[in-house]
């Protein structure tokens, strides 16, 4: 279980502004792995570099949260709202982001290999050089997303909305049509 103290965890859940002030004083990135933060309001939270492996963030509000460099391998973000969040360099391999709202989010160089993005809204997301190998993007909304140099090898993009998506130099699944 997490090494984060109960007091700090309660602070994160109840007062993001106070959490962010306290976060700057922590000697290392917080360990939130395996915690249940489903439905939590974490809008604007600074979770940069946090260990969030297997964390349940289903239905959480992560709008404008800072998650760059976090390890969120296998995390559950199904139905989460993370519009305008910064996931730059985050590890989201094998994560469940089905139905998540990630509009205008930054996912540059993010590892989304084998991630479940079924029905996710990634409209206008910045996904330069993102790794989406074998990701399931079935029914995802990628309209206006920037996927230049992204790796979509083996990704499922059936019924995905790619209108206006920049796929410059992206590695696409065999037989895929570039939008």
TrEMBL record:
Keywords: Repeat
Pfam families: Pentapeptide
Keyword Repeat appears in the UniProt entry: yes
Name under which the protein is recorded: Pentapeptide repeat-containing protein
